[in-house]
Write a structure and sequence with these properties.
Layout: E1 2-5, H1 14-20, E2 26-29, H2 44-49, E3 53-57, H3 58-63, E4 75-77, H4 79-88, E5 92-94
Parallel strand pairs: 1-2, 1-5, 2-3, 3-4
Family: Belongs to the DsrH/TusB family.
Subcellular location: Cytoplasm
Organism: Buchnera aphidicola subsp. Diuraphis noxia
Amino acid sequence: MLHTLMKSPFLSNISLLTSMLKTSDSFLALQDGVLIGLIDNIFLKNIIMSSAKLYLIKDDVYARGIQKNISNKFVLISYIHFVSLTLKHKQQMTW
């Protein structure tokens, strides 16, 4: 399953989201959701502890000027790679 976070993690149920992540899942944050990748934020430990593959949209990270403060546990990807993830994961959940 592909889990996409589009809004700030502070406005989302991250504990529920992280409890649902499985090894075969991918997690992608875009728009304000990329804030979840910030080093030392309160949600980072739980999302990293999940066994899912973790991605952030590079353009959204750079648009917010936070690229130097992103955890190295996330892979920065383009919107084209996002499309590839949607094709790979037939099931999707938007948070």
